[in-house]
Amino acid sequence: MKLKRVLKWSARAILLSLILAFLVGFIAYWRSTNDCDRDTGAPANPMKAIVHCEYGSPDVLTLVNVEKPTPADKQVLVRVRAASVNPLDLTIRGPWLIRPILGMRKPKDTRLGVDYAGTVEAVGKNPAAAGQFKPGDEVFGAKNGALAEYVCVLADRAVVLKPANMTFEQAASVPVAAITALQGLRDKGKIQPGQKVLINGASGGVGTFAVQIAKSFGTEVTGVCSTRNVDLVRSIGADHVIDYTKEDFTKTDQRYDLIFDLVGNHSFSERRRILNPTGICVMAGIGGAGWHDGIGTRLAGELKAYVASRFVSEKFITYIATLNKADLQILGDLMQAGKVTPVIDRTYKLNETADALRYLEQGHARGKVVITVE
Ligand SMILES: NC(=O)c1ccc[n+]([C@@H]2O[C@H](COP(=O)([O-])OP(=O)(O)OC[C@H]3O[C@@H](n4cnc5c(N)ncnc54)[C@H](OP(=O)(O)O)[C@@H]3O)[C@@H](O)[C@H]2O)c1
Predict the structure, then answer these.
(1) Mutational test site, ligand 1, from 85, 203, 368, max ligand atoms within 8 Å of CB
(2) Half-sphere exposure (Cβ direction) of 264: Cα atoms closer than 13 Å
(3) What would the pLDDT profile of 56-74 be if each residue is shown by its tens digit?
(4) Which of 5, 113, 352, 365 is the most buried (most CB within 10 A)?
(5) pTM higher than the cut 0.85
(6) Cβ-Cβ contacts under 8 Å for 319 (sequence gap 6 or more)
């Protein structure tokens, strides 16, 4: 009798919670709004920027006039010369899983892009607060809304001087992709000289940095890519290349200390089989390259691998890269020393950003896709 009552009340409580959750979601959905809904009139001091008022395919992107930012104390105003696009920008499609963060019905932040390189045009009223930066400096960094003519950035955040031997296009291709590679290999993968490292997805934006960064740590690198990218991956330093159209890397006799996986198209047991007993698999590729139906399945597979690895000696780790000044400086130094050279696949103009994203979402970019800003 007592058990029956407990079950009845539990069912009621669950039903009530579900109704409440639905109501909260429904209200959040209809209340969600963005700048596009507020008519603020023509900007007094305009600049061009890429904007998306709605979720959808790259067709929703428009190049419009917005207010040019003014640097506050501790900020610098950068005239953007080049930017680059990342799978992160494909969130314009508004995946439901992350809409509670992005905005339920419409994107809260209508601006797009993160990676940029450009010239410091001005600093805030107190030049001493702008740190090392002064007008005319060439810099690169990460800031939301970078697909625009200008960005205003805090001097102590992810912005550093551009190495003189790098073009703006090369420097703009670095922040998100190279920091993801650096933090995945160094912090999560605990990479050590002499280790055997496998990089799945070696020819893409993150992968081309990962191959070079792994080599800079003195490791033996195997890159996995398709036939047309074999020469590219070898040319950036991979010791061995596996063509995934001809060979399954999980079916060889080779064992690795570290797998840096940007694709996530193999199960936990397949990848575990080729790891040494103390090996680490860093699952960086949240759903794999491009926009495809299998993203959900791959994400679920990575979650399963993470949980399963709690019970074995091999580690399976996932993470989200954090953009910061110290790591950008390390990457700038590696580029200055010629140890890392960005691979640029295609270059588009700012008004062609939608084409750039259409290309990126096919999932077959060879290195980075860059946007030039005139
Ligand atoms: N954890 C984080 O913080 C973080 C940060 C940035 C990116 N990411 C994730 O990392 C992944 C890679 O990003 P990205 O910028 O490198 O993407 P990307 O540039 O679009 O990657 C494209 C590359 O993926 C390769 N590829 C596609 N299918 C493959 C397969 N089955 N096996 C091996 N390679 C394959 C393609 O080579 P082929 O043309 O030869 O197939 C192409 O060169 C994405 O899922 C992204 O969301 C995660």
Answers:
(1) 203
(2) 27
(3) 999 999 999 999 999 999 9
(4) 113
(5) yes
(6) 183, 184, 187, 188, 282, 284
